[in-house]
């Protein structure tokens, strides 16, 4: 027994000495490559359909070029503020911020100014005065009114091409409208300009319902369920500020017997996300407007990377800035005729 114990003790000592002689494993280099800058990124919420594609473009573009610290702000501005503080403490060289609330831009700018950091806002546009208040601040997004105008053209052209959609024969479009987040620049502009454009084309309109679906498919479906129960076939067109809500509308229509036996309701959205493109192919949506997630993400990454490296924000890029220090990625109206343009944006 003593011999066995002695052997076990000796074996234990050998293993211990061997372990002590091993070199500790080193943590992988930041971003996969030594010397790449840290860039802090927040997305207002990761599960937003459109923003998931913008995030993917940022991640793809940043591979081997930056260490990205990505944050889901969960649609909570207080959470986003804390995330910005955390990223600054981690030594980021620039910030790329998709605001939860555009009105919070001044407080984010003050945090960035205090740390002498450049900040690129994207997708939710701050007030022009906020952007002008700090030399090292820019914006990447779109011209909000453009999407409403293009959506209005799709509605007007499709209505004129399909006179049987005028169910009561009064020459007017009786429409319902699913609005995005109240106060959001895109929601306000799309809601205004889509109707203005339809009227400009010489078509009269009558609003049956307008409520916020908060960009959400489930909320969109719930609203359309209620509207169909209230108005039935008096509704002649469903207009949605984004594709997520449009998809919710399609889901409601299908559950209520539409798209079968000649029963049809036109639906339009904005964003041209892949799910919406499939609905257009299947004849369940009339059209959408390409909100170019790929190029918005790439432009955001390009600017944030340049300024993190101490360069001019536009150096080596194809982008230009307008008089509001903004890169404007153009929209494209999408119907079955030019679906390939939108499909290409997701390759």
TrEMBL record:
Its main location: other. Keywords: Calcium, Metal-binding, Periplasm, Signal, Sugar transport, Transport. This is D-galactose/methyl-galactoside binding periplasmic protein MglB. The ABC transporter complex is composed of one ATP-binding protein (MglA), two transmembrane proteins (MglC) and a solute-binding protein (MglB). The keyword Transport applies. Residues 1-18 form the signal peptide. GO terms for cellular component: outer membrane-bounded periplasmic space. GO terms for molecular function: carbohydrate binding; metal ion binding. It is found in: Cell envelope. Pfam families: Peripla_BP_4 (PF13407). Residues 39-312 form the Periplasmic binding protein domain. It comes from Geosporobacter ferrireducens. InterPro entries: Bact_Solute-Bind_Prot2, MglB-like_PBP1, Peripla_BP_I, SBP_2_dom. SUPFAM superfamilies: Periplasmic binding protein-like I.
């Amino acid at each position: 027994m003593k011999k066995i114990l002695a052997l076990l003790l000796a074996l234990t000592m050998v293993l211990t000495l061997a372990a002590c002689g091993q070199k500790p494993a080193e943590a992988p280099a930041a971003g996969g490559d030594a010397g790449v800058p840290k860039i802090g990124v927040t997305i207002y919420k990761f599960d937003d359909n459109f923003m998931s594609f913008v995030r993917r473009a940022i991640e793809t573009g940043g591979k081997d070029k930056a260490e990205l610290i990505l944050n889901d702000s969960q649609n909570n501005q207080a959470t986003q503020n804390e995330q910005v503080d955390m990223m600054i403490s981690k030594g980021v060289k620039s910030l790329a911020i998709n605001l939860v609330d555009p009105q919070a831009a001044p407080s984010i700018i003050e945090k960035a100014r205090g740390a002498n950091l450049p900040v690129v806002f994207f997708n939710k546009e701050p007030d022009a005065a906020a952007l002008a208040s700090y030399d090292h601040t820019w914006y990447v997004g779109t011209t909000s009114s453009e999407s409403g105008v293009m959506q209005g053209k799709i509605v007007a052209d499709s209505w004129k091409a399909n006179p049987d959609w005028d169910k009561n024969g009064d020459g007017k479009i009786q429409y319902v409208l699913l609005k995005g987040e109240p106060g959001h620049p895109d929601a306000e502009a799309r809601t205004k300009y889509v109707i203005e454009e339809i009227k400009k084309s010489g078509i009269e309109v009558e609003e049956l319902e307008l409520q916020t679906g908060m960009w959400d498919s489930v909320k969109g479906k719930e609203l359309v369920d209620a509207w169909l129960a209230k108005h039935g076939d008096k509704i002649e067109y469903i207009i949605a500020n984004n594709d997520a809500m449009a998809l919710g509308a399609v889901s409601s229509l299908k559950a209520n017997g539409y798209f079968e036996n000649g029963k049809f309701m036109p639906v339009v959205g904005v964003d041209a996300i892949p799910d919406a493109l499939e609905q257009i192919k299947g004849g369940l949506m009339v059209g959408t407007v390409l909100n170019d997630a790929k190029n918005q993400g790439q432009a955001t990454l390009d600017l944030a990377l340049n300024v993190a490296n101490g360069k001019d924000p536009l150096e080596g890029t194809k982008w230009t800035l307008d008089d509001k220090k903004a890169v404007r990625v153009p929209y494209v109206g999408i119907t079955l005729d030019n679906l390939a343009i939108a499909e290409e944006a997701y390759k």
